Amino acid sequence: MNRSGAALVLIAALLLTGCAPEPSTPDPSPTASLSPSASESPSSPETADPAPSESPTASTESVEGVAQLIGLTGFAISDEESPYIVRWGKGTLEGSDVRVYEFSDEEQFATYVDSVAAFGITADSFVRVGDFAVAPTDPGQLEQIRASLG
Question: Going by C-beta distance under 8 Å and a sequence separation of 6 or more, which residues neighbour residue 22?
Answer without folding.
Answer: none
